[in-house]
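Q: Sequence in, structure out?
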Amino acid sequence: MPRLRLPSFRALPFVTLVALTAAGCSKDEPNPNAAPVSSSLAPAKPKTDAGKPYAIEAQDAKVSFMMDAPIEKIFGEADGSTSGELFVDPEDITRSTGLLKIDLDKLVIYQQKRADEKAEFGERTKSDLQNEHARNWLGIGKDVAEAERTKHRYIEFKISKIETAGAKNVAGLSGAERTMKLDVTGDFRLHERTVQKKAALEVTFVMEGDKVAKVRVKSAKPIPVSLEEHDVRPRDTLGAILQKTADELATLGKKVSKDAMVSFDLHAKPK
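A: Exactly. Output:
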């Protein structure tokens, strides 16, 4: 699965984010533009007898996102955060399935700022306060009840459809490493909101003889994730919505990215 753009909090200039956080709390009203609340996605199952299970290796997993804005760029990294299972059908890769999970507890936020749109961006830095605010936006802040944190802790992506204009059978390719370009559609769940998402992937099969010994799944281009669709917005440490959020964000709408552009690089081995 892919480089994601996380919720717009990363695109907000840091000073603005602090101001919003200090604004106070109001009633946690539903966001009319957010996707419906949904439960966790069901585990993936193989479509065919040829679909063999491969486990994602967390230690090799890299997930990141970037949110671009005129004054401040926000970056997120969640290396070692991914788990899950793929059922790979080497005879017809479009019949493969899988469920991936990303642990947001491992997410770290960085920023790169400049004085104005004519100045050069400074070095990338990490702010502990900004990271604390990001966790609040995602509903996994330190003071959020454990039951609520559990609901929000993981991003999930369940594959429902795979398409390719090239070969479908791994045996039809040659070499010790065989690569396919795939368009994958599936259910993407973040912050209890599920939407259908499409991702362009590059999948490489590392062979040992005629068997697939390892699968590498890499995003071919960043995947846009809408903060609004997933109801990711300014919250306090307990998860309550902050005052004046809608008006302030609307004012910033022309200057701030509302999408997080997500990318990923994963490895999986036979179970």
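The chain is about 10% helix and 40% strand.
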